[in-house]
Specification:
The chain has 79 residues and is mostly helical. Helix content is 78%, strand content 0%. The longest helix has 31 residues.
Length: 79
Amino acid sequence: MVYTVTEQLEEIFVFKFRQFDETNYKNSRYPTDEDVLCLHSTLDVSVTYLHNWFKRRLQRFLNEKREHAVKRAESETGM
């Protein structure tokens, strides 16, 4: 399969971002300003993009946590 330059850059971005995410997200739900600046320079994406990505990530995590709590409560009450 032949990739375009844009597809190659996107693949590199996703790979590097996942590496950061997997190693650091477990320690803290939101990156420090230093982490954001490091990602900004490493991945060549805007700081705003990174802040928004992490806000959405946190929101997804909280929604999943709420859904899990609701399912657990329903199973305990037999609903």
